[in-house]
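User: Before I run my own analysis I want an independent prediction to cross-check against. Here's the chain; please return only the structure tokens and, at the end, one sentence I can use as a sanity check.
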Amino acid sequence: MPILMRGMKLFGQRYIDAMCAHPWLSLALLPGLGRLSVCSDFRVNFGPDNPQLQAFEQQQNRYGTSEHTLFTLAPSSAGREAVFSPAAARAVLGLTKAAWSLPPAIRVESLANFRRVQARGNALHADELLPRDLPITALRQAEIAALAS
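Assistant: Structure tokens:
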């Protein structure tokens, strides 16, 4: 066992022995409890020159963090058809376009950029579920609703 670990274990044991032998000492520590805090950031355990922390920071800077933002749209009218209405499709397309302009965004997942893959014979065809250039007709709305369910 390293000397530092042995010293910490010895200090901990002495501290516990002192608190058990003299419980009134613990009352002397009560005023300091207001300044006691817990930090959930693991970075406080590493120095700024730690190579593993630096590698982790480089990875986070390059690929982004695992933080997510979720936007939820709910149509004002009830019913399954309202979710796939032309107005809802325009709102989804607009929000998706705006989400790409958020500074940390590296990926935006949406019905607007969801790829629909179909097999036709021996070939695979991929197209957008909500095409930007085609109007949402009643037939297209029913097709989208059937695919999304």
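Sanity check: The longest strand covers residues 115-120.
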